[in-house]
Sequence to fold (135 residues):
Amino acid sequence: MAEALQKQSPRTRKVSRKEFIVALLRGGIIDQKSGALDRAIQRFSKALSMAPEHPAGYMFRGGAWAQKGELRRAIDDYNAAIRLDLSCAEGYYRRGKIWQQLGMSSRSEMDFKKAADLDPKYDLQQRPGAWDGAS
Fold:
């Protein structure tokens, strides 16, 4: 059986569900980096429809929403990622950055503190200017 799989060309090999989801996320990341935000969001959304239990998809889509200027939608996705993984320091940090952009300093400070508590790399006391949006 393994020989049969090896003989198949890459175009005829059946892709697993997991491989398809990973390909959607990778494609979304490439789209986002190239500025094709709507297409990136579509790919992330498709991946999430297939695997809504994975926080990474929400983190990626939240980043695309934020880049697009859809800050409330970004917050919704970061909230979803955090609900799925309460130890998601990056989710708290990114959500804190959005709260900061919206002028909600008490919320942003709470999220920055939680991120730093979970992962020292997010310790804003060690990063001058982080509280004022300079980082």
Notes: Residues 86 and 92 are 9 Å apart (CA to CA). Helices lie at 2-7, 17-34, 37-50, 55-68, 71-84, 89-101, 105-118. The longest helix spans residues 17-34. Residues 131-135 have pLDDT under 50 and may be disordered.
